[in-house]
Specification:
By secondary structure, the chain is an alpha/beta fold. The chain folds into five domains: 5-67; 78-179, OB fold (Dihydrolipoamide Acetyltransferase, E2P), CATH 2.40.50; 187-452, no CATH class; 459-500, no CATH class; 505-538 and 552-773, 4-Layer Sandwich (Metallo-beta-lactamase, Chain A), CATH 3.60.15.10. Helix content is 49%, strand content 16%. The strands form four sheets. An eight-stranded mixed sheet has the order 15-14-13-12-11-10-23-24. It starts with a helix and ends with a strand. Residues 649-655 have low confidence and may be disordered.
Length: 776
Amino acid sequence: MNGRWIYAAAASLLGNLTSFFHPAIAVIFFLLALFLFKKNILAKKSAGILIMIYLALIMRCELAAEHNRTSLAGNESEFEITMKESVKIDGDLLTVLIELADKKEKLAARYKIKTETEKKVLADQLGTGMTCRVNGTLQTPSTSTNPNSFSYQEYLNHNSIFWILELEQLNLSDCSYRKSSPALTILKIRETGIQYILDHYPEQTAPLAIALVFGDRDFIDQDTIASYQKIGIIHLLAISGLHVGMLAGMFFLAGIRAGITREKMTSILLLVLPLYAILTGAAPSILRAVFMMLLVLLAKKLKVPIQLTDVISIVFIGYLFISPYIIYNAGFQLSFAVALSLILSAPIILKKFSVSYAAILAVSFVCQIAAIPILLWHFYEVSYISIIANLIFVPLYSSIILPVVLILFIFDLLSGGNADFLLNVFEKLIGFLNWIAEVLSAIPNSTLVLGRPSLIMLIVYLLLIPAFFAGWERSKNKKDLIKSGVLPILAILIHYLTNVFTPAGEITFIDVGQGDSILIKLPYGRGNYLIDAGGTLVFDTEDWRMRSDPYDTGKDTVVPFLKSKGISKIDKFFLTHGDMDHIGGASAVIREMRVKSVVFSQGAEISEAENELIVQAKLTKSNIVFTKAGDSWSNGDHAFQVLSPFGDRLGDVYTGKNDGSIVLFAKVGGLNWLFTGDLEETGESQLIRSYPNLKIDVLKIAHHGSKTSTTDSFLSAVKPRIAVISAGRNNRYGHPHNDAMRRLRDYNVQVLRTDKQGAVTYVFKGNSGTFSVHLP
């Protein structure tokens, strides 16, 4: 199998996918094995090994699935827990990974800190390895409630965590250190090292040093993370092969200079590297780099020749066998995909370049192209400027930032914290680089939003991208290179065309909790309309309770949903009225999307929040439109009409801003729709007086199903067949109200609810379509 382990890695991957995703993948494996055997690429013995690896991975995955379950009933209230990591405190929320002392089951624990004094005491004294007796309630983790959205429940389950423990109290008098272990000792060293950096390093250098020395990005400002992610250089803030290689090289060289033989230093590295993996958080990229180096060192020590493709393949197989669920991890996918692409392509491609910067650009290009399908699956977009950004940042980080961070850390420790001057100089450089990242990320339309690829589209990417690399390797001139370069562009173009010019349209009531957000996506890319963007009420709170990255409905739910659908442009963005549960997420939509027109209610009193949105929309060159009853437009077979508000007569008719909501009537997908904002009884009465012949099929229930909406007279007049209620789970207002639900039952209206069923979607072609809900 020498030089052929890459086929074994493919077999292990297909075995994993056969077990976790679909049995039909077995057909792909056996066709691959038959092809390799018939082409004499693998001998009979090697083909047999391939089949054994494939079957072994299936059995391993089935065994993992069988044992990946909780031992708790869910009604337990008293626990003895051990902290498995450093606690994370954000505002008044403490979170930590814990393990039950008696059952050895991991849980995610949360605690709402009561006072500022308690926050300081817990941050100072609660540490890794501490065992506490606590009371609390077990909660099931939240699942995905919108298509393509992140499922916290699945994420935890894939890490063998099935419960969130909501702690009632966390008294340090009930906590103590009991057992010790080598791993725990290393984690405590890590915790101490992180705290040392926080205490001694400048503001911008400290988070970066923690990320590059100890592999923890949690301390980096969220805006910096967002900037690095948007321009495609977030990988520079994670420990990878470059970091491991540089540290190992420095350590090896220091040992040689100290008089230790090469053989002994190799043995020492074999012992030290696994400890380093634990010390730096054991992320997939770290483990890949560490175990690849271990394998290379071991082969060198045993004088066994081994190829890098075999090294990465053997590590991949071992990783999947030990931790089958790691296949779901985006970091794992990116780390192995990019590393394998570099190992296979870079040596041949780099020979074509004599200028170092051209070679760096080529390597960056290889990494970006290899990462495209994974980035699109998880993040729905790729950056146009990532190659340029990598050209700027990769040389700086590899030749200056990383070595200097490591040297300064060691020097500061050895000098007793006397590296202040050097750290302050370095702080200026880090601030400058962060500023460049911020400027680049602010470039408008710098990302290509394609949405999550379908299975067929993934296969297209997985065929055309390797074909491109193969063509690039074989190319002898620019003409050949251009020909092969068409392939990834072709894959992206196919993805774009299949997404935009689909004959299917959809109307989706996005689950934004207690609020409204509705997407109307017309077929063939004819138009994208968004009605509201949800939002949460913001209350005045003490500074110490403030979260560094509070939940934002627009940023965290609406924008990711839109991008997952391949939407980067909104033609009309209706903000029905000024309540925060309708417009609170609008800022993120205007900031992240190209919004042609932002539509407000004419005649209603403009709130302070709406004024801020108007200013923001003008800055992004969106049109500001104030609409009233009588405004209408059509788009192909689809017709839209604004039924309310009634312009300047609003003050004479309505008693509150809810009744000033934009009410939109639409003929889409063979059905008549009525979107009512937060209309209440007075507004409903005015609506049916003004439009006595209004008949609809689907009613967006006004005001989340409050007692003062959806009256008998209104239902009797418009006669809906289906009603959709957008409300939050267990919301404080008791929506939808029992009286509203009773009235809907009395009129035989089928009710769909986002609080019970998640997102509600109507997919249509022509004049026929189907309703579906995200949660069964």
